[in-house]
Design a protein that fits this description.
Number of helices: 7
Largest sheet: 4 strands, antiparallel
Shape: globular
Strand order of the largest sheet: 1-2-5-4
CATH topology of the largest domain: TIM Barrel
CATH architecture of the largest domain: Alpha-Beta Barrel
Strand content: 15-25%
């Protein structure tokens, strides 16, 4: 079986230093022995089995089982004839039964409230070569910077069409004209990553590698960034590695165990936001988050990341009363 993962990938992933999981894990269109389809790979070390549910196999959990890759905790396989635009999830076989999960590395997902991942590519012809060649100077600490922060869904509406938000492509010329005319150098977008609850404004993410499909496809979001760049405007993304929601299709209890989050709620659950907290002590979780940040800088030409919820990541007693948190090994409040 053809694999997108080599031994070095497995080593770096398990070591916590892999920075390009977006190109290795998840669903990727390709071919095997001349047959078109898609490669799938997912981390679920405690699973008793993993299979692919998709439009191609009629969502049959027995149709396309994945195989474990040594002791890495990764399951992988190939689905022949799977096509771009088809929906899929992983069927994770646990002691308690089968749970259906969206792809943690998926690059495109259904528009909420639907929750499946979508097979997609990231092919795009960029036109921002001049900006990219000079962005080191534009983003230097000595360079002037004036940032326009915004929420994409609230910028403007279309009253004659149900008061809907603008698409990425509709936003591109309007937003560019607005920020240029007001003298801004950068746009900071509140989280664009896929999220189930619109009321969170994007701060409760389930798709750390996918722009929300509420406003279009990955290529549509690339067009927005491209348009801003061609006008000399840099793009900064809010990024949320502090926590994630408890929605059933997301990262929580992914393989039947507390895989991405701490098991003890005194470290693994945010009382204010009712969300799970990432377990940064787990090497593979660090690889996942590092890869997510770099993915946006690389694939989407984003110029910077603004990290949200930093205080909650640094301090174990964040928003907790005495007895509601666990000190570190030295008895302190710092998250080491």
């Amino acid at each position: 079986m053809t694999s997108l993962l080599n031994d070095d990938d497995l080593y770096l992933f398990n070591e916590g230093t892999h920075g390009d999981l977006g190109g290795r894990l998840g669903g990727h269109l390709g071919e095997q022995d001349g047959t078109p389809g898609a490669h799938f790979s997912v981390w679920a070390p405690a699973a008793q089995g993993v299979s692919v549910l998709c439009d191609e196999n009629g969502w049959d959990p027995a149709s396309h089982p994945l195989a474990p890759r040594g002791g890495s905790g990764i399951w992988e396989g190939f689905v022949a004839n799977a096509k771009k635009g088809q929906r899929y999830k992983y069927a994770i076989h646990t002691e308690a039964g089968i749970v259906e999960k969206a792809d943690p590395l998926g690059v495109h997902h259904e528009t909420p409230p639907h929750t499946a991942s979508i097979l997609w590519d990231l092919d795009y012809t960029w036109g921002d070569e001049a900006f990219m060649a000079s962005r080191g100077e534009r983003n230097a600490l000595s360079a002037p910077m004036s940032i326009y922060e915004m929420h994409l869904g609230s910028f403007r509406r279309v009253p004659e069409d149900g008061n809907r938000s603008l698409s990425y492509r509709e936003l591109a010329p309007l937003l560019t004209e607005h920020v240029v005319s007001h003298g801004f150098t950068h746009v900071e977008l509140m989280p664009v990553m896929e999220h189930p609850f619109a009321g969170s404004w994007g701060y409760q993410v389930t798709g750390f590698f996918a722009p929300t499909s509420r406003f279009g496809t990955p290529q549509d979001f690339m067009f927005l960034v491209d348009t801003l760049h061609q006008a000399g405007i840099g793009v900064i993304l809010d990024w949320v590695p502090a926590h994630f929601p408890t929605d059933g299709h997301g990262l929580g209890l992914f393989d039947g165990t507390h895989l991405y989050e701490h098991a003890d709620p005194r470290r693994g659950f945010h009382p204010d936001w009712t969300t799970y907290i990432f377990n940064y002590g787990r090497h593979e979780v660090r690889s996942f988050l590092i890869s997510s940040a770099l993915f946006w800088l690389d694939r989407y030409h984003v110029d910077g990341i603004r990290v949200d919820g930093v205080a909650s990541m640094l301090y174990l007693d964040y928003s907790r009363e005495e007895g509601e948190w666990i000190p570190n090994e030295h008895g302190g409040r710092e998250n080491l």
